[in-house]
C-alpha cells in the first residue's frame, strides 16, 4: 500500500462523483456522491441495518473514475454513518476518510481531481450545433453527445453528469426527453440502482418550444434554464457553469444536511451517557488544580439558574465538557443538550439549522424543519465558536435570548421555547466588540455570567489525572491493557507547553495506548517525537543534588535510551549495555521503564 494521497498533494475541494462503489464489508446499492483527495461520501441501500461498515470501522473500497476508466482501490475509516428508514427501505449515508491506496491509485485520483471538468450531456445536436457547443464549452466542461434518448439515459446512469443540454429543432422530441427524465426527481432510488435523484443534472433547454410550455416546465422544476435555439456562446457557457455550480451546491447541501442530522442524533445519545472527565453525579474528576477548582465552583454556582453562560478559553481547553457538566447540574439533565459549532456553516445554513425552516422557503426545502432551538426546548443549547456568527444572525440570537420566540426561515408562525443558552468562544469577545466584529448588545446579554477556562499549561496539576482517565478510556475502546504512565513519560507531559490543551493531551495518550504492548506502562518511547523535542526539562522538586541521586538519574537515562534504541526488547538492550538481562530488568522496573508481560 502507498502512503495516503493527502501526503502527496495539496488538499482539494469536494467534487461530485456519482459512480458505483464496491465496499468490503459489503454494502448493497452503494454510490459515491462526492470525493476529495482525503475522503469520500457514500450513499447505500443496505438490506438490513447491520450491513456494511459502521462508525470508526475500517473499510476497503473500489471504484472507477469516469472518462479515464482508471480503477481505484483504497483503504479508509468510517468517520460517520447515518441510517434513515424510508418508504423504499433503509438508506445509509457514510463519510469515509482515506487511509492508503493500492500502488499508484492515489496519484490517479489526485490527477483526476486536478484536471476534471464539468461533465455535460448534449442531446440531439446537429453537426453545426455540435461544433458550436464544443467551442462554447472549451476549457470549462467536457461535452458528451447523444443522438438518441436511449443514449442520453445511458450517459446519465454514469452518475457524474452535472448538466444536460437539449438541442435540435424537433420540439416534440426535445420535450418528450424532458418529460421522460422527470422520474429522476424521486427523492432516492429505492432499488439502489443510481445516485440520489435530487442531484440529477440540471437541464439547459436549447430547442424550440412554446413560451407557456417553457414557463410550466420551469415552474415544475423540470428545466433549469431555457435559452432557445442557437444561444449566444457566452450565454451558453455561463448557463452551463451556473448549472454546475447549482449542482455542486445541492450536492454539498445534501451532504451537510446528512451530517447535521447525524450529529444531532449523536448529541442526543451523548446527553444520556457519562462524559469523559465527569463522574456519575457530575463531580469534577480530572480537575485537581486550583484554577480549575475555581472554575468548577462557578459552574456549580450558576448551573441551577436560567442564566446565559459564556465560556471563554483557548481551543481544546474543554469548553464542551464544561457545558455538559453545567447541563447535568442545571436540573435539565433529562432534557436534550444540543450542540452546534457556529464556525462550521455559512450564515444561511446556520440560520436554517438553528431556527428551522418551512417547506418551500428555499431551493431544497422539501419539508418543514423544526430547528435546533425547538429540538432543545426544555433543555440546553451549546453554541460553540459563537464569535464566527454574522451581525445579522447575532441580532436574531439576541431576540431569542430576550424573548424566547423562534420564527423559522420563510415562516410566519412564532413559537416560544424554553432553552438555556451556553455559548463558547476561542477569542476574547470583549476585544471582538471593541474591534467591531461582534455586536455589543449580544455580548452584554451573554456576558451576564462569563467563565474563563485556563489553558492546560497553567494547570499542570491536572495532567496526571487527565492522563490516567484517558488511559482507562482508551484501554476500553482500543482493547489494550496499558498500566499507567511511567515517570519518564510523566516528566515529558509536564514539560510540554500543550498548545492544543486537553484535546492534544487526549490524542497523545490515545497514540501511546495504541502503540503499547500488553501490560506495558506508557513510557517516553511511546510519545510523539514532536513532543520530546519541545519539552522543557522539569526541575527536581526535592532539590536533591546528591551524588547518589545524580548517578541514579544517569543510570535511568542510559537504560531508557537503550530500550528505545532496541524497540523495548530487554535482552537486546542488556547486550548493548553489557549487563545481565535479569539485572537490567530489575533496574528498569525500579525506574518505571519496563514491565514484564
From TrEMBL:
PROSITE patterns: SIGMA54_INTERACT_1, SIGMA54_INTERACT_2, SIGMA54_INTERACT_3, SIGMA54_INTERACT_4. GO terms for biological process: regulation of DNA-templated transcription. Pfam families: AAA_lid_14 (PF25601), HTH_8 (PF02954), PilZ (PF07238), Sigma54_activat (PF00158). Keywords: ATP-binding, DNA-binding, Nucleotide-binding, Transcription, Transcription regulation. One of its GO terms (molecular function) is ATP binding. The keyword NAD does not apply. It comes from the Bacteria. Residues 285-514 form the Sigma-54 factor interaction domain. SUPFAM superfamilies: Homeodomain-like, P-loop containing nucleoside triphosphate hydrolases. InterPro entries: AAA+_ATPase (IPR003593), AAA_lid_NorR (IPR058031), Homeodomain-like_sf (IPR009057), HTH_Fis (IPR002197), P-loop_NTPase (IPR027417), PilZ_domain (IPR009875), Sigma_54_int (IPR002078), Sigma_54_int_dom_ATP-bd_1 (IPR025662). PANTHER family: TRANSCRIPTIONAL REGULATORY PROTEIN. This is AAA family ATPase.
Amino acid at each position: 500500500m502507498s502512503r495516503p494521497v493527502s501526503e502527496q498533494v495539496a488538499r482539494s475541494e469536494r467534487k461530485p462523483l456519482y459512480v458505483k462503489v464496491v465496499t468490503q464489508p459489503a454494502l448493497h446499492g452503494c454510490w459515491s456522491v462526492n470525493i476529495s483527495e482525503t475522503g469520500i461520501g457514500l450513499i447505500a441501500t443496505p438490506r438490513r441495518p447491520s450491513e456494511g461498515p459502521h462508525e470508526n470501522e475500517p473499510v476497503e473500497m473500489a471504484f472507477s473514475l469516469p472518462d479515464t476508466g482508471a480503477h481505484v482501490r483504497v483503504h479508509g475509516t468510517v468517520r460517520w454513518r447515518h441510517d434513515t428508514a424510508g418508504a423504499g427501505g433503509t438508506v445509509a449515508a457514510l463519510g469515509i476518510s482515506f487511509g492508503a491506496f493500492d500502488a499508484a491509485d492515489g496519484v490517479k485520483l489526485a490527477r483526476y481531481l486536478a484536471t476534471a471538468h464539468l461533465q455535460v450531456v448534449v442531446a440531439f445536436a446537429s453537426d453545426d450545433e455540435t461544433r458550436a457547443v464544443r467551442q462554447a464549452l472549451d476549457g470549462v466542461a467536457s461535452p458528451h453527445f447523444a443522438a438518441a434518448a436511449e443514449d442520453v439515459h445511458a450517459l446519465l446512469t454514469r452518475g457524474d453528469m452535472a448538466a444536460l443540454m437539449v438541442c435540435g429543432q424537433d420540439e416534440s422530441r426535445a420535450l418528450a426527453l424532458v418529460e421522460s427524465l422527470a422520474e429522476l426527481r424521486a427523492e432516492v432510488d429505492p432499488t439502489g440502482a443510481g445516485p440520489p435523484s435530487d442531484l440529477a443534472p440540471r437541464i439547459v433547454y436549447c430547442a424550440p418550444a412554446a413560451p407557456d410550455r417553457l414557463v410550466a416546465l420551469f415552474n415544475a422544476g423540470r428545466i433549469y434554464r431555457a435559452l432557445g435555439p442557437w444561444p449566444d456562446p457566452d450565454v451558453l457557457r455561463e448557463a452551463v457553469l451556473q448549472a454546475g455550480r447549482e449542482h455542486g451546491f445541492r450536492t454539498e447541501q445534501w451532504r451537510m444536511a446528512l451530517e447535521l442530522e447525524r450529529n444531532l442524533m449523536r448529541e442526543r445519545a451523548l446527553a444520556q451517557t457519562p462524559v469523559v472527565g465527569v463522574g456519575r453525579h457530575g463531580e469534577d474528576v480530572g480537575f485537581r488544580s486550583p484554577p480549575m477548582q475555581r472554575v468548577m465552583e462557578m459552574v456549580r454556582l450558576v448551573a441551577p439558574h436560567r442564566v446565559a453562560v459564556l465560556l471563554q478559553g483557548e481551543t481544546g481547553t474543554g469548553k464542551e465538557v464544561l457545558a455538559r457538566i453545567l447541563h447535568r447540574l442545571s436540573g435539565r439533565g433529562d432534557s436534550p443538550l444540543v450542540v452546534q459549532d457556529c464556525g462550521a456553516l455559512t450564515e444561511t445554513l446556520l440560520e436554517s439549522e438553528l431556527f428551522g425552516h418551512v417547506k418551500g422557503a428555499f431551493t431544497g426545502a422539501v419539508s418543514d424543519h423544526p430547528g435546533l432551538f425547538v429540538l432543545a426546548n426544555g433543555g440546553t443549547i451549546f453554541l460553540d465558536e459563537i464569535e464566527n456568527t454574522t451581525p445579522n444572525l447575532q441580532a436574531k440570537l439576541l431576540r431569542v435570548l430576550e424573548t424566547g420566540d423562534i420564527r423559522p426561515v420563510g415562516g410566519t408562525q412564532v413559537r416560544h421555547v424554553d432553552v438555556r443558552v451556553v455559548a463558547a468562544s476561542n477569542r476574547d469577545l470583549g476585544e471582538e466588540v471593541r474591534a467591531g466584529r461582534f455586536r455589543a448588545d449580544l455580548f452584554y446579554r451573554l456576558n451576564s455570567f462569563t467563565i474563563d477556562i485556563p489553558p492546560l499549561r497553567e494547570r499542570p496539576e491536572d495532567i496526571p489525572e487527565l492522563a490516567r482517565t484517558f488511559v482507562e478510556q482508551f484501554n476500553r475502546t482500543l482493547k489494550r491493557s496499558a498500566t499507567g504512565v511511567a515517570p519518564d513519560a510523566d516528566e515529558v507531559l509536564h514539560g510540554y507547553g500543550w498548545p492544543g490543551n486537553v484535546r492534544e493531551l487526549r490524542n497523545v495518550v490515545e497514540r501511546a495506548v495504541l502503540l503499547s504492548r500488553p501490560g506495558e506502562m506508557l513510557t517516553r518511547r511511546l510519545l510523539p517525537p514532536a513532543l520530546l523535542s519541545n519539552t522543557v526539562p522539569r526541575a527536581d522538586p526535592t532539590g536533591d543534588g546528591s551524588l547518589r541521586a545524580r548517578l541514579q538519574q544517569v543510570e535511568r537515562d542510559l537504560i531508557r535510551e537503550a530500550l528505545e534504541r532496541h524497540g523495548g526488547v530487554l535482552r537486546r538492550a542488556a547486550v548493548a549495555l553489557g549487563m545481565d538481562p535479569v539485572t537490567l530488568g530489575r533496574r528498569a522496573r525500579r525506574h518505571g521503564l519496563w514491565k514484564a508481560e
